[in-house]
Amino acid sequence: MSPLKKRRHWAVTGVLSKHIDHRNLFTQRVCCKRQSHFVYIGQDISGSPVSIDVGMCRSRCGGASRPSHEAGQQGFSKHASMLEFLRSKKMKTRGLAAPESAETLPSCGVNQACGPTGMRVERAHLLEGPREVEVIEECHCEIKLTHCIRVPALRTYYSETPYETVIDVGGCSRSKGSPEGFSCVPTKFDSALVETPNKVDLIQTVAGCELKESCYRVPYVEYYYETVDHADGVKEERLKEIDVGTCLGGCTTGNRCLLSFAALVCTVAARPSLNYLANLENPFTAENDSEEVRSAAIKRLLEVFGMEGPPAIYGHKQPPQYMLDLYNTVADVDGVTKDPYLLEGNTVRSFFDRMHSDQVEFRFDLSTVARTEKILTAELHLFKLRPHATQTFNRHHFSQVSVYQLLDTTKTNTTQEKKLLSSRLIPVHSTGWEVFTITQAVRSWMVDEDSNLGLQVVVRTLGGNQMDMRLIRFASGRNHHLSKQPMLVLFTDDGRRSTSLESTDPNHTTTTGSLLHAPLSGPPSRSARSLDSSEEERTSMSCQRLPLYVDFEEIGWSGWIVSPRGYNAYHCKGSCPFPLGQNMRPTNHATVQSIINALKLIKGIETPCCVPDKLFSINLLYFDDDENVVLKQYNDMVAGSCGCH
Predict the structure, then answer these.
(1) Do residues 574 and 624 share a domain?
(2) Tell me, what's the pLDDT at 503?
């Protein structure tokens, strides 16, 4: 057993409690203890073997028996939860036990098991790079898992930086004896603050788990103001919160998990088709529901999204993980922007290498980028592979990696064949994504498309000599999986700051309005209302925000839109009667207009209209015509609140 070299322990006080409190689940027993259990995890930089005491919880008193819980590296990735692996292994290895003797009694009582309750993350610097291992520190007797509980799951954020933090994000675990047809899922959530170089990130964690069917409801609170009339004639405004709920989980093919408004629970409901809308008494009736009207409405909706037509995508494509992570950073589950200042510009595109050369040269087709777009930042993403061992393997620890723009000497009037764009030191033995800034090259390509001859990567030793390419290897588009292929990520701004309606006249209706105001999904009991008989309802219902779900699958766009599947645009409905209360958020102009209408001072002056007074942006992650993945932010797409204007 060799000692561990260059390792360190982390103190995670304030983020993750070192000892997890299970007051009602654990009881101490004398022989339920942690025992040493060394696991070989690789070689360090000098080539010496490295083993770490990950520990194990003894399952029986006396002789050494097969442990019920042991840490290690088999069967899980470095980002997976050790405890989740241990739980599954405990269930699998539990078989017919040998007859118990006085020397091999169970370490815990009846219906209990010796399990880990204290964990830490330990890091080792190995030949292939840093490796993280979860280590058991303490063991206690726990009640055997019979249903569904929350279990710890350690995650590392901002690794290899001064802001490196370990957080217990939590997970859910269940036993084999749980009822069939149910899943152990998160139902309560919490959050933890993580300090970053520019701000503080909010990390969602699992606080509680329950056994639920595939479709289940979780709390979701919305706030609004209501006016309370007191007996003395005084009106008081109160902030009221309502748990409107939201649905999580999946259903069988062809069904959706929808909120049942009668019971405020989530149930499996058949997905309504657009043919169902023909039976509703609204402008989208059978009389108007022609193919021409539908095509015109969808065409107008495409214009809102800045497209001439839906991209033709054939077959299932997998978007780059970087783009998925970026989308989840800037948008919530419905695509609504978390923070408008997170994203640089309003468009991010990813391009794969089109050259597929055996040499370290790359070329990207940028023809889908409009010349009117402002180029903000361009990045070359290369995946560094593990080096092949050579005779000079242990001589070099760092290399100088430089990215050059290939030039056309016939146009530049110089003999210079390439131009340096970015250069930096990279550890020889590391593996993973490396990012280089190439903004200057992309800007020149946008001015002259023919000047795009591609990029070249040159690797040298610290002494300036050409390095053996078996030591520094980057994944290519020809020989490696799509998830590791070279990629250009481009941040741009197309200048679109907001969208506006063609007419502010509430009686003016466009074909897009017909499409969006039709309930593309949702329970028929709420959507099948006659607009002809809504005058009485309009007088009794004050101005408020109501759901309006735009379902991309229903429209036929699910083939090229990655996320979200749809979004709640909301719409404003209701009357603005005199006098206008502050809960209706009236403008001064609306207040004056309401007074003029009430006093009948001028003919033809209508009451103020119930319209959105706060609008939010949404984000779309989709494939374009060249099968590049695009993340685009669209302003003014969600009604955040309604008021009388």
Answers:
(1) yes
(2) 34
Question: How many H-runs (helices) and E-runs (strands) does the chain carry?
Answer: 10, 36
Tokens of 535: 């005058």
Structural domain of 418? 347-493
Number of residues that make up the chain? 645
CATH number of the domain within which 504 lies: 2.10.90.10
Residue 258 has pLDDT above 70, yes or no: no
Within a domain: 231? no
Residue ending a domain, among 165, 194, 212, is 212
pLDDT tens digits, one per residue of 546-597: 988 888 888 888 788 888 888 898 988 888 877 777 777 777 887 788 777 7
Give the predicted TM-score (pTM) of the model: 0.50
* Mean pLDDT, range 14-42, rounded to an integer: 57
Query: What pLDDT is recorded for position 404?
Result: 92
Q: Tokens standing for 632?
A: 């685009």
What 3-state class would DSSP assign to 126? strand
Q: What is the rounded distance in angstroms from the CA atom of residue 216 to the CA atom of residue 267?
A: 7
Sign of CA dihedral 615, 620, 624, 629: positive
Same domain, 506 and 616: yes
* Segment holding 535, helix H or strand E: helix 534-540
Q: Are residues 369 and 319 in the same domain?
A: no
Which stretch, 104-118, 386-400, 480-494, 586-600, has highest mean pLDDT? 480-494
DSSP state of 158: S
Does residue 190 share a domain with residue 48? yes
Tell whether 40 is covered by a domain.
Answer: yes
Tokens of 404: 């050059």
Measured between its terminal Cα atoms, the distance across the chain in Å is 77
Residues 408, 330 share a domain: no
Whether the CA torsion 365, 371, 372, 373 is positive or negative: it is: positive
- Strands of 161-249 (E only): list them: 165-168, 171-174, 183-195, 200-212, 215-218, 221-229, 235-243, 246-249
pLDDT digits (tens, 9 = 90+) for 136-181: 888 888 766 557 888 888 888 777 778 888 888 888 887 666 566 6
Look at the chain and report how many structural domains it folds into. 3
